[in-house]
Structures are given as C-alpha cells and as structure tokens.
Automatic annotation (TrEMBL):
Transmembrane segments: 12-33
InterPro entries: JTB
Protein family according to the UniProt entry: Belongs to the JTB family.
Listed GO CC annotations: centrosome; membrane; midbody; mitochondrion; spindle
Organism of origin: Drosophila virilis
Stored PANTHER family: JTB PROTEIN-RELATED, PROTEIN JTB
Protein name: Protein JTB
GO biological process: mitotic cytokinesis
Keyword terms: Cell cycle, Cell division, Cytoplasm, Cytoskeleton, Membrane, Mitochondrion, Mitosis, Signal, Transmembrane, Transmembrane helix
C-alpha cells in the first residue's frame, strides 16, 4: 500500500499526524494541570512538625519539589516522604522552615517526555536512512538485472 502512495502524500500524512499528536499533548497537559490543582485542594499532604504556616503566611521556596532520598523513604524519618516520595522545603515569613509533601515534579515528567521524543526521533531518522539505503541498493540491483537482460537480447 505504501508503494502506491506518492511522497508528498506521505509527508502530508505524517505532518497531519504530528500536528494531531501535538494538539493532544497540549490538551492533555492542560487537563492534567487542572486535575492536579483539584487534587491539591482536596488532598491533605503530610506536613512535618504539624506546621501550617505556609497556608496563612507568605512563604518562599527554599528547595523546589524534589524526590526524597531512598533512606528517608525506607526509614520513614521524614513523614512527608511516606505518601508521595517527594518533598518541598519552604520558609515562612515568620522564619519557620517547613518541609511539606508535594506532587511529582512536572519538570521531571517533561524531561522524561523530551528524552522519549528525542530517542523516538533519532530511531525514526535511523530507520529512514536504513530504509532509504536499502531502497537504493534494491533499485540498483534491479537496474543492473534489467540492463543485463537487455544486453543478452541484443
């Protein structure tokens, strides 16, 4: 079937599929962000030392949401690492430092997605090059076979 398609039709189809994929990813990420906000409102994360100063005071983020160490998870030394395995360190306006549990970092998921896309792109390019080289070899063999047949007839 692909042999019957013209090159510009295949390029047009691939472009359409790429655009649809990007559109789905944008819509999915938008809904995922809304879903995580809804979960945050409804979900109570464990807070170390039972401090909630970050809820009623302004605060600065000392450390962004990052994975807990394996020791913290296994030993349960930090209560915030038990449920989500991620923690965030905040400093409230009063000077109190609070460690709170947080969702998986979107940056990590984005980085993993970009790695996956890069690997898929490289594999796609390599597949194309191998396919192109194989097509050229087969075309050359076919051309040589036809040329030999024509030389025998003459």
């Amino acid at each position: 079937m692909l042999e019957n398609c013209q090159r510009h039709h295949m390029v047009l189809g691939l472009t359409a599929l790429t655009l649809v994929t990007i559109l789905v990813l944008i819509i999915e990420s938008r809904y995922a962000a809304e879903g995580s906000l809804a979960r945050r409102r409804g979900q109570q994360f464990v807070i170390e030392n039972n401090s909630t100063c970050w809820r009623h005071e302004s605060y600065t983020v000392v450390q962004e949401c990052h994975p807990c160490s394996e020791f913290d998870i296994v030993s349960r030394s930090l209560g915030v690492c038990i449920h989500t395995h991620y923690k965030e360190v905040l400093r409230c306006k009063s000077g109190e430092i609070v460690t709170k549990s947080c969702d998986r970092v979107a940056l990590i998921e984005q980085r993993n997605f970009i790695k996956f896309e890069a690997i898929a792109f490289v594999l796609g390019v390599l597949s194309y090059l191998v396919s192109y080289a194989r097509d050229r070899i087969l075309s050359r063999r076919n051309y040589m076979r036809i040329e030999r047949q024509l030389n025998r007839v003459q």
